[in-house]
Specification:
Layout: H1 2-11, H2 29-47
Length: about 60
């Protein structure tokens, strides 16, 4: 929230311009690449969060499908 407020104040010319980056709103640069890579990693973790192998049946037990 603080970074968003600072970004707005710079655009309104109430604060001096500096090298600000607001993720998913700013355009281009290496920060955009970093944001995309980090979002890709987070989405991959979320996608494979509940992947668990089913336990194999015990030897000698009958399996009904």
């Amino acid at each position: 929230m603080i970074q968003s407020a600072e970004y707005i104040l710079v655009n309104l010319a109430l604060l001096p311009a500096s090298s600000l980056y607001l993720p998913l709103i700013s355009f281009g640069g290496s920060n955009m690449l970093q944001t995309c890579v980090l979002l890709g990693i987070l989405l991959s973790i979320y996608r494979y969060e509940n992947v668990v192998a089913e336990p194999l049946p015990a030897a000698g037990s009958s399996v009904v499908l």
